[in-house]
Amino acid sequence: MPYAAIVVVMALHFTAVDHLVRHWHPAAFDRALRWVFALAITAGWLLGTLTYLPGHVVATWTAVLAGAILLNVLNLELPRPSGPLWPFLVGVLVFAGVAWLLAPG
Questions:
Q1: 83 in a domain, yes or no?
Q2: In the chain, is it the N or the C terminus that has fewer CB atoms within a 10 Å radius of its CB?
Q3: What is the tally of structural domains in the chain?
């Protein structure tokens, strides 16, 4: 069950990033970038399915990915000083609550 939640969260994150990149670089995105993104996700899934990695390698790359997502969220999604902070804080609380409910043990 926790993996299903991670898949949903990552899909939403990739969708948001996809729209941002399309907004920033519309011609390049329509010509090639969408295919690069689709191939990268497919290649990552295939490698993850067909290869074995020791636990410490998976933990390290998970931490790197989490840090990159956190920096992305703080940079792009945190409201600017003039914007309201409450929607962001509600999202943080909802995500923390879901993570707490799905945490093993």
A1: no
A2: C
A3: 1
Per-residue pLDDT tens digits for 13-70: 778 778 888 888 989 888 898 899 889 889 988 988 899 988 888 888 888 888 887 8
Q: Which domain holds residue 17?
A: 1-51
Tokens, residue 75: 């940079």
At 17, list the tokens.
């990033």
Residue with tokens 């990268």: 40
CA distance 69 to 46: 22
Q: Is residue 44 part of a domain?
A: yes
Dihedral of CA 91/84/68/49: which sign?
Answer: positive
